[in-house]
Design brief:
39% of the residues lie in helices and 20% in strands. The protein is α+β, with helices and mostly antiparallel strands and 423 residues long. The strands form three sheets. Strands 5-6-1-7-8 form a five-stranded mixed beta sheet. It has a four-stranded antiparallel beta sheet with strand order 9-12-10-11, with helices on one face. Helix 5 (75-92) packs antiparallel against helix 6 and helix 12 packs antiparallel against helix 13. The structure holds a DNA duplex (18 and 18 nucleotides).
DNA sequence: TCTGGGGTCCTAGGACCC
DNA sequence: TCTGGGGTCCTAGGACCC
């Protein structure tokens, strides 16, 4: 097996820079919802010491002192640019697995005609850059986990020119593993990283040579698989067909906390509507639903409460009205006065394709009339933007709405915000 | 004043069965 | 002093990912 991992560099920041070239060379971060945390950083921002996921209030002073530019997240833009990048890859490579918004694995096995894989990847890299404006790095190896290792080193090394092929020389895998900290291995998170270092396993190379019995005890079969992949045995293969989703979740922290059930209900109404629309988009129905609501866990001086509950949806459905009704009823049951709530959400569970439901056991999930209504609803919101058509009771100006103080325009997905060029 | 959102998989333990 | 052996199914929680 031979895999390439194509990973976009500092993806959200790079997307912003496509339409804001004035941001090149500046320290830039993109913030999470409510402008809460830094979720993407330019190299210049990393050099200032901004950590992944760091709360914005901790780095706000860098705006004044070092010209840090902080942008609110613009997911419409990132999703659209992602599609463009992935379609360039799909044009060039026979088999592609889109792994996340900014990463794809390619299968290089069926490319016998290509003599120089690294050269071919450099060409691909230039093409993505030219056609989308996005810089990518590419790692090549015999397993996905090793391709991840290669990719990280390709990003860090200037002379790699964005591509590192660990299959081209027999001693490169070991060298790469020695230069990778155990916590930077795909599949080794914060927790396991500490456990490993405590046991004297510091580098990826140490991990690849660790005692299997110990690995199994500390990290189970998952850890064992990671070790095998580091040793060069491919455990994970290329998944070109996306599997059916198992859950749909819509949840948000509020712009500011609220003790009003009216307001939280308004939020739930929107979240549940969006969850139902996602479900219909995937052509599935849900047989169950969970709702949760919680206070602000960072305000430890306030009384804390975090509750959740679930109900069955019978018959299984993707109908907005049924899902919203069930979610709101459950929220009202979970509700207790006297708390300032900061977050709520809905999780649709037990998803199935309607054609897989037992035929005659249940009545039709919704009447044909209701189904047509949902189709019309989706079509209107597709065409005119999310929320163009929605159930009543929604409160546009409520305090729970998220803060996004520095969002760039939806350059590529909204006609009213399309960029204009002046000579 | 200020701390994201959306997923997957695995495991341990309890309920229940014969 | 002693209190079966196996199974399955479900759920909650914990780990991981981007």
């Amino acid at each position: 097996m031979k895999f390439a991992l194509v990973d976009c560099n500092n993806f959200y920041v790079s997307c912003e820079r496509v339409f804001r070239p004035d941001l090149n060379g500046l320290p830039v971060v993109v913030l999470s919802n409510n402008d809460g945390c830094a979720v993407a950083r330019s190299n210049e921002a990393k050099a200032l010491g901004v950590a992944m996921g760091q709360p914005f209030f901790e780095i706000k002073h860098l705006v004044e002192s070092h010209g840090l530019v902080a942008l609110s997240s613009n997911y419409a833009l990132y999703g659209d640019i992602s599609n463009r990048v992935m379609s360039v890859l799909a044009d060039e490579a026979p088999q592609v697995e889109v792994y996340s918004i900014d990463e794809s694995f390619l299968d290089l096995d069926n490319m016998v005609s290509v003599q120089d894989l690294a050269g071919w990847c450099r060409q691909l890299r230039r093409r993505v850059r030219l056609w989308t404006g996005i810089p990518v790095s590419i790692g090549i190896a015999n397993t996905k986990t090793l391709a991840k290792v290669a990719n990280r080193l390709a990003k860090k090394s200037a002379k790699a020119d964005g591509v590192l092929d660990l299959t081209s020389r027999s001693d490169w895998v070991e060298m790469a593993l020695r230069r990778t900290e155990v916590g930077d291995v795909w599949g080794i998170g914060n927790r396991w990283s500490k456990v490993c270092v405590g046991a004297g396993i510091v580098t990826a190379f140490d991990l690849s040579r660790a005692n299997p019995g110990w690995i199994r005890k500390a990290m189970g079969n998952v850890g064992l698989r990671t070790v095998m992949e580091l040793q060069g045995t491919a455990v994970y293969s290329l998944e070109t067909e996306p599997a059916d989703r198992k859950t749909v979740c819509v949840s948000r922290s509020f712009g500011s906390a609220t003790a009003s059930m009216e307001e939280v209900r308004g939020a739930m109404l929107e979240y549940a509507s969006r969850a139902a629309a996602k479900l219909r988009h995937d052509g599935m129905v849900a047989a169950g639903l969970q709702v949760f609501v919680s206070t602000d866990r960072f305000r430890s001086e306030d009384p804390q409460r975090a509750v959740s509950g679930s109900v069955k949806l019978s018959p299984a459905t993707a109908d907005t009205t049924s899902i919203v009704r069930a979610a709101v009823q459950l929220l009202e049951r979970l509700w207790a006065d006297g708390y300032r709530y900061r977050k709520t959400g809905v999780l649709l569970i037990d998803l199935v394709r309607p054609e897989d439901l037992p035929r005659d056991l249940f009545p039709a999930a919704s009447s044909p009339r209701q189904a047509r209504l949902m189709t019309a609803l989706d079509a209107a919101n597709d065409r005119f933007g999310r929320g163009a058509l929605h159930l009543g009771l929604s409160a546009p100006a409520a305090a729970w709405r998220m803060r996004r103080e520095a969002k760039t325009p939806s350059w590529t997905t909204n006609w009213r915000e399309i960029p204009t060029v002046t000579a």
